[in-house]
Every structure is written in C-alpha cells, then in structure tokens.
Amino acid sequence: MDALAVPHERGRGWYLSLMAPNTKGKDFAWLDPSRLYCNRQALSDCVKDLLQPFQNESIDLVAGIDAMGFILGSAVATTLGTGFLAIRKAGHLCVQTETQVYSDYSGREKLMEVRLDVLKPGLRVLLVDQWIETGGTMRAAISLVEKLGATVVGVAAVAIENSEGGKWIKENYRHSHCIPADLQAQIDRSTWTPSGASAARLSDPSPPALSQL
C-alpha cells in the first residue's frame, strides 16, 4: 500500500497495513510500524483509536518512551491538548533525574531516566510507546512515574504482545492497542505481514473492538 494513500472506507486498524516488513535481516526488528506515521490520516486514526478507552478519563500529561514513543506520544498529547514528557535512555538529560534499571526486548540490562521537576503526586499520566514486546521497558516507565508519586492512568501502544510482561500490563492497567483480536496471535509470533489477506482484513469497514481493561 502506498505510504500516503487513504482508502475510501477506513475500518478500525486499516492503517496497520502501512507498517513495513523487515528487508534487512535478523539484526533488525521484524516490522517497522513508524511508516504509518507518514500518512496524516493513518496517524490521526491510530491516535483516535488509542484514545477511545480513555475518553472519560482525566489526563494531565502524556509521557512517551525513548525513542519511538516520542513520535506517537507527542501526537497523542497534541490530540488531547496536554503537555508531553520524554522518558529518556539514561545519560542524555542535563538536569536532575530519577533512574530505573530495566531489560529491553533484547534481554540487555539498560537504564532509563526522567526529570524530577515535572511529575508529582496527583498528576495523572498516560504512558505511550510504539510497541510493547516483553513489557520490560514499559514496566520500568510505570515504576518511574509511580516512584515520583504520579498516577498512571493507562498505557497505549500500537501493539501489546501477549508476553509475560505484556499480560502483566494488561492485567494491571487500563490499556489500549490497535491490533484486532484475530490477528493478535500472528503479532505475538512475528508472522503477520502487511499484505494479502491480512491487509484486506484490515480494510474491512466493520471495526473490531480494541482491547482494553
């Protein structure tokens, strides 16, 4: 599908067919969701779908996780009319920070940080990332926000895989993602492709329900 094309009928999740498959081999992620951000309508519809479960929630701030969560999180914040907080990989901020150790999808131990002069008790925060695979990165972000006294309203991502960490997030926090239930297993196995029958399925105007707590 052309990166900037918009179908006449847009079923919920139609924009997933814009995601690009890996063409570089095993050293890279199996899929590149960021291609859908190039399409103005796709990005708008993706954000709208992610926010649906939170439409009755009071949200003071959106926090996005380094790095791709910055793009989607900023779009979510703009739509909500809130500010945006960047949760960074450690070592980049020139101000006082709180840090949290975590293991990412590769299993490597890393450190993330957030500035100390924004989060405070009573602040209601929506956490956004592009993709939740093992859940380690998002769980660390949740810990950072809660450690500083703020409340995690929920978690939003294009996909939340049914890994141990992904299931923990789904069981403990309000959440939203864009993957139809009948495609979740393919996403979990990294076998879904944005072409053929799957793409046709996503163009169906009958909207599948978004997963939410």
Give an overview of the whole structure.
The chain has six helices and nine strands; from the N terminus they run E-E-H-E-H-E-E-E-E-H-E-H-E-H-H. It is an alpha/beta fold and 213 residues long. It has one domain (14-202): Rossmann fold. The strands form two sheets. The chain has a seven-stranded mixed beta sheet, with helices on both faces. A two-stranded antiparallel sheet has the order 1-2. Helix 1 (40-51) packs across helix 2 (68-80). The longest helix has 13 residues, at 68-80. The radius of gyration is 17 Å and the shape is globular. The chain starts with 19 loop residues before the first strand and ends in an 11-residue tail after the last helix.
Keywords, separated by commas or semicolons:
globular; 9 strands; Rossmann fold; about 25% strand; single chain; disordered C terminus; two-stranded antiparallel ribbon
Give a short summary of the structure:
This protein is α/β, with parallel strands linked by helices.
Helix content: 25-40%
Shape: globular
At the fold tier of CATH, the topology name is Rossmann fold
Question: What string, H for helix and E for strand, traces the elements in order?
Answer: EEHEHEEEEHEHEHH
Task: Name the structural class.
Answer: alpha/beta
Tally of DSSP helical segments: 6
Tell me the Rg in angstroms.
17 Å
- What is the β-strand count? 9
Subcellular location: Cytoplasm
Family: Belongs to the purine/pyrimidine phosphoribosyltransferase family.
Catalytic activity: AMP + diphosphate = 5-phospho-alpha-D-ribose 1-diphosphate + adenine
Main location: cytoplasm
